[in-house]
Amino acid sequence: MARGGETGGVSRRTLLVGGGAGVGLVLAWAFWPRGGAGLHAGAGETALNAYLKIGSDGRVVVAVPQAELGQGVWTSLPQILADALGADWRTVGVEPAPLAAVYANAVLGAAADEGSHWLPRALGAAREQVMATAGSTSIRAFEAPMREAGTAARALLMKAAARRWDADWRSLRTGAGFVTDGKRRIAFAELAEAAADESVPSDPPERSAGEERLYGRSLPRLDLPSKVDGTAQYGADVRLPGMIYASVRAGPSDSSRLDRADERAAARVPGVIGVHRDEGGGWIAVVAINGWVAERGIEALAPAWTSPGPEADSARIEAAIAQGLESGTAARVVDRGDSPAGGPASFAYGAGAAANAPLEPLTATARWSGERLEIWAPVQAPGLARAAAARAAGVGEGDVTLYPTLAGGGYGRKLETRAVEQAAALARRTGRPVQLVWSRLEETVQDGFRPPAAGRP
To answer: What structural domains and CATH numbers belong to the chain?
Structure first.
């Protein structure tokens, strides 16, 4: 794509604003937020493109658009970029990418067009601009963008070094965090600011196979040290001045509505601050001085629910599946060999409904200040979570700031936004920072279960 006098190839502007040539990078200009790419460069940092900053202290910071759920994506994606750049792995750090269209998961957006059940169809074409971690798409969606970002930044650094040495930039090399020319070398940190003023060539050369590479090597994970020493911040680790804590209960299905709750009993629990009901009757919450008290308060509340129809249970599900096997029309998937003795009707295979059951239940912390809302939460789709928080608080999405935290497992569960919505509503009502952590009971009752299935040869 050419624009504003730029010719074909990967330009710095397309990497900063519109993306590069790889899958997941190219965006229609009409969809790009004209306020900027969103990657913030702090004091002593220089942003070379939407995925990379280099600090004057030598740090190489990679912005990763995917949530770290324990799957190691905060190491694998930086490793791809660092390898293409020629960085020293000991200097590489990672931070969550800001919420911007340039970081959309295009592979997942394409899958949505083919019938993905969780990405809302109401988003229409905007589904292709959704940032999300799901479907084992992280490497498929961002390997090319990370490699291109590293390669383009490498060319900028080489061109900046070539100006100092009065050399042909294409004859230079990079490795271990330096641009080299024989025995001469300059650290990336010394070149970053000047490199940002260079233009990316139309065909930036990649590092040769003979150079020392990070690609394919087993490297120390970037997220492990903080997880080992306890400094890693998960959703429930957030602490804010004046924060209160909430526990919530909802009915067994979306159609359930609150019938009764003993608010007087909850108020008698020492430390309970108040009880808040969802305006639609779908959930009720207790806020208190700490999480333990909030849970004791919700237990004392003993909420009861009514539903318009019978709720699902294991016995009814199994009966329905058995009836389907007996009366339904079979669709043969594969035909190979002979049936075992006794015939096809003598046995069947099945898998029951299964909960996601991540180690970390849904959680969110919300702070309402004036006309703005801040959210801290482990999320797999930050844009959808921000939109949900805005609806719950009755503000525009531009008035919501979302800070994604590490997630203690996902399995798709952190695509859900109900805890974010509840925390946002409670913060707006109370006027105080609120942290909501679902109990294991609530997490299990409200979980999105894998559908049961059965088959017969």
So the answer is: 12-225 (3.30.365.10), 235-307+357-446 (3.30.365.10)
